[in-house]
Write a structure and sequence with these properties.
By secondary structure, this protein is mainly α. It has a domain at about 20-65. Helix content is about 90%, strand content about 0%. The longest helix has about 50 residues, at about 15-65. It is rod-shaped. The mean pLDDT is about 85.
């Protein structure tokens, strides 16, 4: 564990190491973001279908009474 922290400390000692560390961090954020957006997209589609179904049912029920 300490060796890994020392390696990270060595990376930030030069501009290229800092750039590499920043690019890796951005890559991790993008990968996590893709997963979160994938789940969010599915939830939005599901919510849209549920609301559309409720709207249709309420419209038909309103016309019956």
């Amino acid at each position: 564990m300490l060796a890994a922290l020392a390696a990270v400390g060595g990376l930030t000692g030069s501009p290229l190491g800092t750039l590499l560390l920043a690019l890796v961090a951005i890559g991790v954020v993008v990968l996590v973001g893709r997963f979160v957006l994938s789940v969010a997209w599915k939830l939005v589609v599901l919510a849209t279908l549920v609301v559309a179904g409720l709207w249709v049912v309420s419209t038909l029920a309103g016309g019956l009474f």
